[in-house]
Amino acid sequence: MKSIEELNAVKEKTLARLNGNTVRIVVGMATCGIAAGAKPVFDALKEETEKRGLENVVVSQTGCIGMCKYEPLVDVYVPGHEKVTYVFVSPEKARRIIDEHIVGGQIAEDITVASVE
Amino acid sequence: MTHAIDKTNFCNKQTRVALRNCGIIDPENIDEYIARDGYQALAKVLKTMTPEQVIKVILDSGLRGRGGAGFPTGRKWQLARQIVPDADQKYVCCNADEGDPGAFMDRSVLEGDPHALLEAMAIAGFAIGATQGYIYVRAEYPVAVKRLDIAIRQAREYGLLGENIFDSGFSFDIDIRLGAGAFVCGEETALMTSIEGHRGEPRPRPPFPAEKGLFGKPSVLNNVETYANIAQIILNGPEWFASMGTERSKGTKVFALGGKINNTGLVEIPMGTTLRTVIEDIGGGIPNGKRFKAAQTGGPSGGCIPAEHFDIPIDYDNLISIGSMMGSGGLIVMDEDNCMVDIAKFFLEFTVDESCGKCTPCRIGNRRLLEMLTKITEGKATLEDLDKMEKLCYYIKENSLCGLGQTAPNPVLSTLRYFRDEYISHIVDKTCPASVCKKLLKFTITDNCKGCTLCARKCPVNAISGAVKQKHVIDQDKCIKCGVCMDSCKFSAIEKK
User: Fold this and answer.
1) Using an 8 Å Cβ cutoff, are B466 and B456 in contact?
2) Who among A11, A15, A69 is closest to B263 (CB)?
3) pLDDT score of B12
4) Does B10 fall in a domain?
5) Cα nearest neighbour of B154 on chain A
6) Domains of chain A, each with CATH number or no CATH
7) Under an 8 A CB cutoff, do A14 and B32 touch?
8) What stretches in chain B show pLDDT beneath 70?
């Protein structure tokens, strides 16, 4: 990469990917999240999306989302909708998120951050 | 009600600059960093600015070191650029040896946004004229080390580190050095000695690192959080940064909120926010309806902010004026159940353990100080000891070689300043008002006792006796004050005083 144009090209391409039609499920996986059990949650989300053949769904990781006491935290970005944050997520709850929110289109209200705030 | 974490009370009162990408991007994917304007600041610097202009922007922004002491970052870079004009090699170092008990701000940036650090170090390299950077990160942060390693490899692949970056003629590369767990290596000269491959011990200053630092060459050392602000300052301008904060402390500060508080976690707030806002609004107050007693800032080098200063705007100078310090950003909240003498003892035990032993005031002085504190917590001290202890504190502060020793007595001095009455209670009345110091506690059985014998069976030293269905008694000579009886009693019949 030798020019700002090349840098901007990567930026545009990535923005298009992030803001495109894909649903993104993002797990907080800093040390704090991992210690609280984010790894099995991440694996469960991956496994469930693959099992159901959900091609338009990407599971990825991020750093510390900030609210340690609710870890593991999972953010769900559905294009055109406000982000939804799930708290105290376990592998079972992860499968519920896929089933109810991603496939069924209904937010699992009893396990979002609003349910504990 | 919203389902997004950003809209909660915890998040919407924060201003995220250093943590802007944490929890948003995938730290192991350089493209996601670039999508959030990553490496644009480096491109701008290399393509359109001179090193002097870069330094001026950082100076004008008013950014001060986030590692604790608060030295102006621009001034540091300026000195490293100018002091030895004909140096053949200079170095940029990053202090990621975050060791304060309870502090994890830097870890969050390293794990959540490692490229922000790399970009800022390259900018610093351009500003001072260095081609090599070192990140000194503690080995106890394996996830941070792994993500830094991935980030460095990705940046090299893209040519954002290495030879002739952005075709500008400027070359810069970064290597990681692992710390082996010594707290003193967070001190700048000890850190550099450790990178050089020697035992991590501080050396006298002057010469300051800007003149003779790593491998004897002019060097700049900044903290992770300081670097995390740099790219944003370059992109948004120094005026933007200086518009946040107080007159002499600009921008934001990240705090690791912990202790007796409902919302533990990382918070980034503009400088000048009051402790009340942080604890009541963002932190959600103290659990179990307890009363706020004090907040500890600055870790083992800092001090306490008592309830009377609850409305003081948090910035470098205000904290110093009330006898504490910003430190790297640990903020531990304490309620009425915390004994301040015990807190001072906890931090001093830490510094005594971590003293490198090179200079006598720190090595021996702090140990003597700890012995005196221990005497107080055991009810064996006199008021004369208290005066002696205070004198020793000042002696250690004035005569220690490095920051570790110079600040080690701070927790003692600060608790003495605001909670002298608690020290007096321990010494004169032989009681611990918060019922923490074991040697001064007495466990007794009240008339609530039903004679169930559970406590007598649980007691590890057989100090409890009594017949079934009759009130039991604790033999005070045998009792080791472990509290097992109190925890096991189903009738709340055991009293601790």
Assistant:
1) yes
2) A69
3) 81
4) no
5) A1
6) 22-115 (3.40.30.10)
7) yes
8) 1
